[in-house]
Amino acid sequence: MADDRFRFVHITDTHIMAGGAWPLRSGGEFDTDASLRRVVEVVRALDPAPAFAVLGGDLASPDILHRNRMLTPAEYAPSYARLKEILGGLPCRAHFLMGNHDNLEALNRALRPQAPLDAPCYYGFDHGGTHFVALDSHEPGHADGVLDAAQLAWLERDLSEHRERRTIVFVHHHPWPLGHAWMDTMTLRNGDDLMTTLGRHAQVKWLIGGHVHSEQTIQRGGLTFLTTPSTCIQLEDRWARALRSGPAGLPRGGRRRRPALDVRRIRALRGGGCSWRAQRPFERTASEWLCGISAISGERSASLRTTAPREARRH
């Protein structure tokens, strides 16, 4: 039997904004370019190198600097150009998702030149005996997300055609409330429709998202939902403590648990290199909440950590 083990990385909420830095609620600014460059350095140091990267949405965010109006694709273009330049340092190809801060035309022009400018950003691809699905939950002008009827119908067809392949699905928005009053106003509005569709297909074991700027691992039935923290700003510790405190924020029928996969965390060191150590979820120091990448390799998963500040309610 052929060895189909491989590694890929999930990087999300990079929030690149040409022409400025993220203004912090606590004062000062945060350089999202610099934080993503450091994440790329960490990925380049992985041995073996990942087969590919999945960029999970909220990739460019110049709108954060202009919250009083919607920006045009042309105004997004410099941010996507900078993102493309930074991601050129990755040792592998990349696949892209849309987030609520993204602009479809500008993203397609810069990162998906083979696609029509108005083509929705949902698709499937295969690697190493595994099928992957990228969904597009972006709705222009909305912080929350939705999957329209056409996309859900496509998803049903795609999963039906790949019943014999283990499948991992990516989406930007979280389909269930996670117990955070603010972020839970920006969920996937028809998350139940998505979960009903996935529930009809036993080959789907993992759903991976971003958007919430923190790490979550929740199991509901046979499906594990994983969120990857942002490469830049994380939500403040109040959320971390609330999510550790008990089941109140969990979806009905769900539970937060140690995932079946072996979860390891890599923390990027200031002097270069990486430090590995095994650790259970929710048993880490504050510094280890400052994170950037989830890496999944065959029957293993890991998260890579880089230094970044936490911030509340300025998403």
Quickly give the structural class.
alpha/beta
Strand order in the sheet with the most strands? 5-4-1-15-16-13-14
CATH superfamily: Metallo-dependent phosphatases
CATH topology: the name is: Purple Acid Phosphatase, chain A, domain 2
Please give the alpha-carbon distance between the first and last residues: 47 Å
What kind of assembly state do the chains in view correspond to?
single chain
Q: Helical stretch count?
A: 6
Q: What is the number of independent domains?
A: 1
- The outline comes out as globular
Name of the CATH architecture: 4-Layer Sandwich
CATH class: Alpha Beta
Radius of gyration: 18 Å
What's the story with the biggest beta sheet?
7 strands, mixed
What brief labels describe this structure?
single chain; 315 residues; alpha/beta; Purple Acid Phosphatase, chain A, domain 2; 6 helices; 16 strands; 24% strand; disordered C terminus
Helix/strand layout:
Blueprint: E1 7-11, E2 22-23, E3 29-30, H1 32-44, E4 52-55, H2 73-87, E5 93-96, H3 104-111, E6 123-127, E7 130-134, H4 149-161, E8 166-170, H5 191-199, E9 204-209, E10 216-220, E11 223-227, H6 237-244, E12 254-256, E13 262-268, E14 274-278, E15 291-297, E16 300-305
Parallel strand pairs: 1-4, 4-5, 7-8, 8-9, 9-11, 13-16
Antiparallel strand pairs: 1-15, 2-3, 6-7, 10-11, 10-12, 13-14, 15-16
Helix pairs in contact: 1-2, 2-3, 4-5
